[in-house]
Design goal:
The complex is a heterodimer of chains A (338) and B (257).
Chain A lengths: L4 E6 L4 E8 L3 E9 L1 H5 L6 H23 L8 E7 L3 H17 L4 E5 H12 L7 E6 L4 E8 L2 E7 L5 H11 L6 H9 L23 H17 L5 H27 L3 E5 L6 H13 L3 E3 L3 H4 L4 H12 L20
Parallel strand pairs in A: 1-4, 4-5, 6-9, 9-10
Antiparallel strand pairs in A: 1-2, 2-3, 6-7, 7-8
Chain B lengths: L1 E6 L5 E7 L2 E8 L5 H15 L9 E7 L3 H16 L5 E5 H6 L9 E6 L4 E8 L2 E10 H10 L4 E4 L3 H12 L4 E2 L10 H13 L15 H7 L27 E2 L5
Parallel strand pairs in B: 1-4, 4-5, 6-9, 9-10
Antiparallel strand pairs in B: 1-2, 2-3, 6-7, 7-8
Helix pairs in contact in B: 1-2, 4-5
Classes of the chains: A alpha/beta (338), B alpha/beta (257).
InterPro entries (chain A): ATPase_NBD (IPR043129), Gcp-like_dom (IPR000905), KAE1/TsaD (IPR017861), TsaD (IPR022450)
Main location (chain A): cytoplasm
Cofactor (chain A): Fe(2+)
C-alpha cells in the first residue's frame, strides 16, 4: 500500500505548528513556534497578539516542517488543519493558509478537531495503543472523559461543568504569584510541598464522570485570603501540592472508574495537563492496580503540536473525510460522537 | 504577466485577475458570510472562469492594512498559502491607497476613511494619486480639521462614511462634500491589482507584512501601566519541555520514545 504522507497545521491557541507524519504513526518533522514567552508578560494568552504572530510565523513553520521531513509539497497525500475549538482569530490563520495551500498543490484538505488531535498523540507515542480505550483529555481549554471505541468513533462520558483542569492550574498559579504558564510552575513548586497539608473539598456532582474545579479553586483562594487577613505566612509549596493532589486524584479516579464500568482494558491521557507528573503517576498506579494498560504521550506531544493533528487526519483521510474551500473555523466546535 | 489580487480588509470579499495590465475578471461578494467562507472559493472560481491556473500567476497583491484585523489576516493567510508552494512573490498594498485608486483620476482631494471603532477612523488623504496626509488612526474630528483646510469640493470614501456622513456634511457644508456612487465607495480588488502593478513598476519590492495602525488592546494597556489584573512576570517558561526560550523561534521537536 502506498504511504500516506500528511502535513498537519495547528494554530488554535498560542503555538504555531506544522508537522509531517507518515501513515499516522511516524513523525518525520514536528515544528513548533511557541509564543509562550510573549504571552507570559500579560499573565495569559492575548488572542490578538496570538493571531498576529501566527500570521508572521506560519510560512516559516511550514517550510521548516517540509525541510526537516526531507519532503517536497508534491510528495504529500493531504493537508490537515485544526478548525476548532480554539481562539477564532488564531484558528482562522491556520485554516486560511491550509485551505489555500491544499488548493495550490491540488491535494485534499482534512479538517481536524483539536481534541481528536490530542487523542491521536497517543497513536504516535505508542504503537500498541489501539481502540477501544478510555481517554482523559485535559488541557487549558478542555477536560473530557471519553470512550474511544474506534478511530474517529468517540463517546463523551464526562466533561467539566466550569473551568478546564489546566485553566484551574493557571488561575491558582497566578493567585499565588507563580505567573504564566501556571501548569509547569505549579508542578515545580508542588515538588517542595506536602500534598496532604490542606484538604480541599471535592465537588459532589449528580453524574459520575463529570468534573468541577471551581469549588477547589475557590477554596484555595479563600485560604490564601484568610491567611493574608490574619497576616500569616502561607506555604505556597504546600498549597500547590495539595491543590495538585486533589485535582489529579479526581481526574485519575474518574478515568479509572469509567474504564472499570465499561469493562475496557486500556486507559490513556492526553492534552497539556497530561504533561503533569503527578497526574501521570496516579493514572499509571491506578491502571496497574487493576491490571489495565496505561498510555500517555511524551511531554512534547502533550502540549499543542501539529504531529497529533496529522496523525488524527490519517484516520479521517482513510474514512473519506474532506474539507471544502469554504471551510470556516469554529471556536466552540463540538466533538462529534460516533 | 498575470497578477492576482485578494482583498478581505473590510465588508467586501474581492478577487481580481490581470493579464498584461488588462482586467481579465473581478468578483466580489458582500453577503454577510465570513471571508474564510467566501474568499478562497471566489478565487478558485475566478481562476476557472478565466482559464488561468495558479502556476501561471506571476505575482499576488494583498491588502497590508489597515482594516478589520481578522479580515486582513484571512486575506493574508489565503495569499500566503496560495504563494507558498510555488514561491509566488507577494506584494502588500495599503488599503487606504487602494481605495483612493477607485477615483484617483479626479482633481479633488480624496479622504479615505475606514471605521476603526472606538470613535476613530483609519484615514489618509490623497490628491491625483499623491498622498497629502499620511495614514493614521484618529478621531473623525482630526480628519475633518485637515479636510477643512483643503480647498474646493472634496471626496470622502471608504466604509467610514456610513457612520460619519452626516458629521462630515455638517462640518464642511453639504456643497463641499462628494460621496461616490456605491460601486466606488468600498474596496475593489481591481483597484488593488492595478495599483499594485503600478507601484511594482515604480520599484515596490516583494515581501509582505501587515500594518495594523493600531496595537492590540493588551499592549496599549501595558504601555499605559494599566495592566492591573495581570501580574507581569519574567520571561522564563516551558524549559521543562525543552522548548526554546527565544521568542518565537520555529524549531523542530523530534519525537523520541
Amino acid at each position: 500500500m502506498e504511504d500516506v504522507l500528511i502535513l498537519g497545521i495547528e494554530s488554535s491557541c498560542d503555538e504555531t505548528a506544522a508537522a509531517v507524519v507518515k501513515n499516522g504513526k511516524e513523525v518525520l518533522s514536528n515544528v513548533i513556534s511557541s509564543q509562550v514567552a510573549l504571552h507570559a508578560e500579560f499573565g495569559g494568552v492575548v488572542p490578538e497578539i496570538a493571531s498576529r504572530n501566527h500570521l508572521e510565523k506560519i510560512d516559516e513553520v511550514i517550510r521548516l516542517a517540509m525541510e526537516e521531513a526531507g519532503k517536497s509539497f508534491s510528495d504529500l497525500t493531504a493537508v490537515a488543519v485544526t478548525y476548532g475549538p480554539g481562539l477564532v482569530g488564531s484558528l482562522l490563520v491556520g485554516v486560511s493558509e491550509a485551505k489555500a495551500l491544499a488548493y495550490a498543490i491540488q491535494k485534499p484538505l482534512i479538517p481536524v478537531h483539536h481534541i481528536e488531535g490530542h487523542i491521536a498523540a497517543n497513536y504516535l507515542a505508542h504503537q500498541d495503543c489501539i481502540p477501544p480505550y478510555v481517554c482523559l483529555v485535559a488541557s487549558g481549554g478542555h477536560s473530557h472523559l471519553l470512550y474511544v471505541e474506534d478511530y474517529g468513533k468517540i463517546k463523551i462520558y464526562g466533561r467539566t461543568r466550569d473551568d478546564a483542569a489546566g485553566e484551574a492550574f493557571d488561575k491558582i498559579a497566578r493567585a499565588v504569584g507563580l505567573g504564566y504558564p501556571g501548569g509547569p510552575k505549579l508542578e515545580q513548586s508542588a515538588k517542595e510541598g506536602d500534598p496532604f497539608a490542606y484538604h480541599f473539598p471535592k465537588a459532589k456532582l449528580d453524574t459520575p464522570y463529570d468534573f468541577s474545579f471551581s469549588g477547589v479553586k475557590s477554596a484555595v483562594l479563600n485560604e490564601l485570603n484568610h491567611k493574608k487577613m490574619l497576616g500569616e505566612e502561607i506555604s505556597v509549596a504546600d498549597l500547590c501540592a495539595s491543590f495538585q493532589e486533589g485535582v489529579c486524584e479526581d481526574l485519575a479516579e474518574k478515568c479509572l472508574q469509567l474504564a472499570l464500568d465499561l469493562g475496557v482494558s486500556k486507559m490513556a491521557v492526553a492534552g497539556g495537563v497530561s504533561a503533569n507528573g503527578c497526574l501521570r503517576r496516579k493514572m499509571e498506579e491506578k491502571a496497574k492496580a487493576h491490571g489495565l494498560s496505561f498510555y500517555c504521550p511524551s511531554p512534547v506531544l502533550c502540549t499543542d503540536n501539529a504531529a497529533m493533528i496529522a496523525a488524527a487526519a490519517y484516520y479521517d483521510y482513510q474514512a473519506g473525510k474532506r474539507g471544502e474551500a469554504s471551510l470556516n473555523a469554529y471556536p466552540s466546535l463540538a466533538l462529534t460522537e460516533g | 504577466m498575470i497578477s492576482l489580487a485578494l482583498d478581505a480588509s473590510g465588508r467586501v470579499s474581492g478577487v481580481c485577475l490581470l493579464k498584461d495590465g488588462q482586467i481579465l475578471g473581478e468578483m466580489d461578494l458582500q453577503i454577510g458570510l465570513t471571508h474564510s467562507e467566501t474568499l478562497l472559493p471566489l478565487c478558485i472560481s475566478l481562476l476557472e472562469h478565466c482559464k488561468v491556473s495558479l502556476e501561471e500567476v506571476d505575482q499576488i497583491f494583498l491588502c497590508k492594512g489597515p482594516g478589520s484585523f481578522t479580515g486582513l489576516r484571512i486575506g493574508a493567510a489565503t495569499g500566503k498559502g496560495l504563494a507558498l508552494a510555488g514561491n509566488i512573490p507577494l506584494y502588500g498594498i495599503s488599503t487606504l491607497e487602494m481605495l483612493q485608486e477607485n477615483l484617483s483620476f479626479l482633481q479633488n482631494p480624496i479622504h479615505v476613511l475606514l471605521d476603526a471603532r472606538r470613535g476613530q477612523v483609519y484615514t489618509a488623504s490623497y490628491r491625483l494619486g499623491q498622498c497629502i496626509s499620511p495614514e493614521r488612526a484618529v478621531s473623525i474630528e482630526a480628519l475633518l480639521d485637515f479636510a477643512k483646510e483643503q480647498e474646493g469640493q472634496q471626496i470622502f470614501l471608504g466604509d467610514g462614511i456610513f457612520p460619519y456622513r452626516k458629521q462630515i456634511e455638517e462640518s464642511l457644508g453639504k456643497e463641499r462634500c462628494l460621496f461616490p456612487n456605491p460601486q466606488n465607495t468600498l474596496q475593489r480588488a481591481a483597484s488593488l491589482a492595478l495599483l499594485g502593478e503600478k507601484k511594482k513598476a515604480e520599484g515596490l519590492e516583494a515581501g509582505f507584512h501587515l500594518e495594523y495602525l493600531r496595537k492590540p488592546q493588551a499592549e496599549r494597556e501595558k504601555e499605559a501601566g494599566a495592566l492591573k489584573d495581570f501580574q507581569i512576570v519574567q520571561e522564563e517558561a516551558y524549559k521543562d519541555l525543552g522548548k526554546t526560550r527565544d521568542k518565537l523561534i520555529a524549531k523542530n521537536y523530534p519525537i523520541h520514545e
